[in-house]
Amino acid sequence: LDIADSPTENIIKHFKKSKEFIDDCLTQGGKVLVHGNGGLSRSAALVIAYIMEKYSLACREAVTYVRNRRFCISLNDGFLNQLAEYEHIYRAQTLSNTSEAATQSQNMLKRKR
């Protein structure tokens, strides 16, 4: 991925594609190495976003989880702010998907009666 290590870079737009790629690899029994130039900011942000969404963690929890495994991560302020923003985005999407699934189930039950 072509991502600048800049606080003004929009990294959120890469989270979905990165998660899909990681999930696809793991589903096929593969392993994934996420790396960049130094492995301190961009790659850490992508991994944190993945951990947040995959395990329904808050931004702080995911940062702590990753930092405990790679102590040298150093997210730029822009990426950290976007990760905090992404927490609200993915939680809203999850809530919307859950609500939509519940509505579909209710409609299906009504048809069976």
Automatic annotation (TrEMBL):
GO molecular function: F-box domain binding
Pfam families with a match to the protein in the record: DSPc
All residue ranges annotated as the Tyrosine-protein phosphatase domain in the record: 1-92
GO BP of this protein: negative regulation of SCF-dependent proteasomal ubiquitin-dependent catabolic process; regulation of ERK1 and ERK2 cascade
GO cellular component: cytoplasm; nucleoplasm
Domain Tyrosine specific protein phosphatases: 9-70
Entry's family note: Belongs to the protein-tyrosine phosphatase family. Non-receptor class subfamily.
Protein name, per record: Tyrosine-protein phosphatase domain-containing protein
Species name: Arion vulgaris
